[in-house]
Amino acid sequence: MRFDLIVVGAGLCGATVAERAARQLGMSVLVVERRRHIAGNAYDEYDEHGLLIHRYGPHIFHTNSERVFHYLSQFTSWRIYQHRVRAMVDGQLVPLPVNLDTIAALYHVSVDEPRLQSLIQQDIMAVPRVENSRDVVMSRMGARVYEKIFKNYTKKQWGLNPEDLAPSVCGRIAIRMNRDDRYFTDRYQGIPSQGYTKMVERMLSHPNIHILLGTDFRELRGSIDYDTLVWTGPVDEYYDFRFGKLPYRSLSFQLAYHDSEFVQPVATINWPNEYDFTRVTEMKHLTGQFHSKTVLMYEFPQSDGDPYYPVPCDESQRLYLQYQTLARKEERVHFLGRLGTYQYYNMDQVVAQALHFVDTVLGR
Question: Which residues of the chain have pLDDT under 50?
């Protein structure tokens, strides 16, 4: 068997490369996926109750890239949706990201905007050099916000103290000196109207694309000829963990069903200080589905299991650089996506990366 291109991984990154290579460049493509389904961690399906579930946690598409949005819009229509999150702090729900209403609740005041801004400015700690995630929060939001919202949540999510994590972890979270309670402010936001799996299915529906599910590519090495290989799995796995395993955070999920239309006022509630779970998401807020039942998804971070999040700390970066050195020497193999490049990318970022790769590498 011979293919112009083999893509390892059928998530959004791999599907984008495969679709563009087949449709735009006329390549013969083999997609190899270890799981028994396509769409990667964005995979969704209807459960036994007929509720649409994001099996690997909530996925909300958002981007400022017109190109990425219009590219994916070839394969789906959209349910316009703007995500809202609350955090349970001291028995009350406060908005996330932190805005003026969050500050008012944490400081137990009800005053005008200039006074609220003044309160948080007084609490901010001067940090000569921001070196970790604790420094980020303390220098931007102060001790009260750090202690109430970030400190314990970060420990649960990453299994490390904020001072042991790169600034980029907490730096992803905005602080707003207004009352905008949307979690994202991107130009384009929404959920594929028939789900992510249907969208990816349409992306991969091309006669030049062949798909092998439930297959570990390492078992195929030597038996299939190809010109180019795109690897979207963990980069350390490709090299058989030559320098040791890169650290990842994983998740486990528990579902709780309720005989009511809704339970939560918003899609996601974070629990920074109580319990072992970090957040609870009610799927129907995302999907817009009409159903007599509803389901809550509880997320429990853990070290073992499928890799979800590269751990951004100095030790992991030093280890990754060793694998990156090997990867840069490859002529026919290219590493893409969150796991292939050990970067905490959003969905739109991996699609943009894949489109750029096809333009600049395959397109030549």
Answer: none
Host domain of residue 18? 2-38+204-245+310-362
- Residue 301, token pair as written in the block: 């971070």
Per-residue pLDDT tens for 214-259?
A: 999 988 988 899 999 999 999 999 999 999 999 999 999 999 999 9
Same domain for 315 and 236: yes
Q: Which residue has the tokens 């690997």?
A: 56
Position 111 scores a pLDDT of 67
CA-nearest of 311, 338, 304 to 231 is 338
DSSP E strand boundaries for the chain: 2-8, 29-32, 44-46, 52-54, 61-63, 78-80, 85-89, 92-96, 188-192, 209-212, 225-231, 248-258, 268-270, 279-282, 294-302, 309-310, 333-335
Q: What is the DSSP string of 257-304?
A: EESSS-SSSSSEEE-SSSSS--EEEEHHHHH----S-EEEEEEEEESS
What is the structure's pLDDT at 309?
A: 95
How far apart CA 19 and CA 222 sit, in angstroms, is 25
Token code pair at residue 15: 């599907």
Q: How far apart are CA 290 and CA 287, in angstroms?
A: 9
User: Residue 122's pLDDT is what?
Assistant: 80
Q: How many CB atoms lie within 10 A of CB 240?
A: 7
Predicted TM-score (pTM) of this structure: 0.95
Which of 171, 194, 218 is the last residue before a domain boundary?
171
d(CA 276, CA 299) in angstroms, rounded, equals 9
Q: In this predicted structure, what is the pLDDT of residue 264? A: 98
- The bridge status of strand 209-212 relative to strand 29-32 is parallel
Residue 59 region by backbone torsions, left for phi larger than 0, else alpha for psi between -120 and 50, else beta: beta
The residue to which tokens 């579902």 are assigned: 255
Rg from Cα positions in the chain: 22
**Are residue 136 and residue 230 in the same domain, yes or no?**
no
Domain end, chosen from 122, 146, 171, is at 171
What is residue 116's predicted lDDT score, i.e. its pLDDT? 74
Are 117 and 177 spatial neighbours (Cβ–Cβ below 8 Å)? yes
- 102 vs 181: CA distance, rounded Å: 9
For residue 92, give the 3-state DSSP assignment.
strand
